């Protein structure tokens, strides 16, 4: 047996052998009358055969079963093993793509005969997986049950065999291509907040991350159908990363502008007090604060070492200094203001680093919870044995089928 799923068409293809057996009163004979022959091989088109059809077939106008010979025994027992390929419609669950588990159903029954004419029964509870051929999809379990359906148009019952096939995708390649690649994307986003505020490498790394993310979204658009009700979590994650990258680019441009421009005005006092207080300690700004304090100390010492001759030692002013000393002190004062703006830019970087780490953590927890719920629901599959279908309909012709 071999199973293939077509995500674009929402179809499942099952290449398998169908074993059917029934009893035909017209094919009984006495072996003594025919030289001891107890069984013969005949063409299936030379005898009666049940008109079993795949109700949810995705391909019409095609014979479900290949023309192979069948075995007829002396007691009228007919055994027919027919190679076939079933093409059925299947509703896929893309929430956990590409690690999803899908359950598809084959609905098989007679096309023209009701339950009073043909009594279809199960020989086995599902497929024989001894000869299973593993492809992209791994068949985890196959269950089957027999049900009797009565349509509103007709009083006669119709028997349907339902085969439920549970499959998981062999997704090791997707793991290495998608999930491992998401690690450097997240790293590129976060590392930009630890570069020097004046570094233009921030924008370059953000552009690289945006390019990689867009390429992955284009790849997802090629692999996943456009019209689906359940968007994959991985697509939501990469879309969220793209939005965060857009914010990161804006923040990086602001930080570079603030830290590289020459501002003659100091930062607002309230903001300065917060940065020099607990907020600065929480954001790890001590090194920048020490540098600012050292610049302020140098400015104070410059003024203190060159006091005005017309003023007392306690009255410090730069008006009595020569032009060279005045320019030096003014330059140091501007440098202090510039460092304070760099301090503000660094604080913005650290704040968004913590914010983005929190967002990534929340998204990871949310996706794990949603993924685990979807994963548990995908395993909630009916497991009905043939004995549980206790309907007993006496038909004219008896048929037993197993897929």
UniProtKB/TrEMBL annotation:
<feature type="transmembrane region" description="Helical">
    <location>
        <begin position="233"/>
        <end position="256"/>
    </location>
</feature>
<dbReference type="GO" id="GO:0005230">
    <property type="term" value="F:extracellular ligand-gated monoatomic ion channel activity"/>
</dbReference>
<keyword id="KW-0472">Membrane</keyword>
<dbReference type="InterPro" id="IPR036719">
    <property type="entry name" value="Neuro-gated_channel_TM_sf"/>
</dbReference>
<feature type="transmembrane region" description="Helical">
    <location>
        <begin position="173"/>
        <end position="195"/>
    </location>
</feature>
<feature type="transmembrane region" description="Helical">
    <location>
        <begin position="201"/>
        <end position="221"/>
    </location>
</feature>
<dbReference type="InterPro" id="IPR036734">
    <property type="entry name" value="Neur_chan_lig-bd_sf"/>
</dbReference>
<dbReference type="GO" id="GO:0016020">
    <property type="term" value="C:membrane"/>
</dbReference>
<keyword id="KW-0812">Transmembrane</keyword>
<protein>
    <recommendedName>
        <fullName>Neurotransmitter-gated ion-channel ligand-binding domain-containing protein</fullName>
    </recommendedName>
</protein>
<dbReference type="Pfam" id="PF02931">
    <property type="entry name" value="Neur_chan_LBD"/>
</dbReference>
<dbReference type="InterPro" id="IPR038050">
    <property type="entry name" value="Neuro_actylchol_rec"/>
</dbReference>
<dbReference type="InterPro" id="IPR006202">
    <property type="entry name" value="Neur_chan_lig-bd"/>
</dbReference>
<dbReference type="InterPro" id="IPR006201">
    <property type="entry name" value="Neur_channel"/>
</dbReference>
<feature type="transmembrane region" description="Helical">
    <location>
        <begin position="351"/>
        <end position="370"/>
    </location>
</feature>
<feature type="domain" description="Neurotransmitter-gated ion-channel ligand-binding">
    <location>
        <begin position="4"/>
        <end position="170"/>
    </location>
</feature>
<keyword id="KW-1133">Transmembrane helix</keyword>
<dbReference type="GO" id="GO:0004888">
    <property type="term" value="F:transmembrane signaling receptor activity"/>
</dbReference>
